[in-house]
Amino acid sequence: MANKPLSLGNYFGVVAEGQTYLNVIYLLLAFPLGLFYFIFLVVGLSLGVGLLIIWVGLLVLVMVFAGSWIFAQLERVLTNGLLRENIEAPPAHTPPDSIWERVRGHLANPVTWKSMLYLFMKFPIGVVSFVLTVAGIAVGGSLLAAPFTYQEWDYVVGDWHMNTMNDAMLAFLLGVVITPLILHVLNWVAYFSGQVAVALLGEHYIHREESEQIRAENQEDPKPEQTGNKERTE
Fold first, then answer.
1. pLDDT given for residue 44 in this prediction
2. Who's near 33: CB < 8 A, 6+ residues apart?
């Protein structure tokens, strides 16, 4: 998230930014995905460890680790696509000769364990993200809709009962001021969630905008080796 100078344009401009709504989608998806990951890991690991004595647990654990790897890749795709980060997937290695060497290499890879930790953390992060997002949307939306719904809904804020059009318009103006603040808060929550994903799902990363800028600069600038070869031939 780029730091912008504080101004009225930047404060209210968050409403018109498409990235804001991509962040909201990401935060809303966090809870159901986090709940699924948590149940999958807790049940799978418990069942796998409990059944190791009859070797069936080994197959269960293999499925848990394979599923965790797939879900971590899904999280990379979501974070890169919705939050505009650029988390690099683990590099593909040449398959070893034996299955044991593949399993040992997978277990020795720090990304395996960091990804599993992230999947566990996705549940509490998802709960907080979902609650803040739903509550923020409910508060901002209800205030903005007050002029159209004050007769059907009983708006009560402390001792203030909004039962007239003047009260509803005052609530609407309050919503105009508060809604951008809510969206800024949700953007920061999404930014924090993205940084957690970046830290645990990949070691080397740069922001997508910086990546595109570097790629464009490399395409514009001639390569030094080619220039040197041309001078030597002359």
1. 93
2. 75, 122, 126
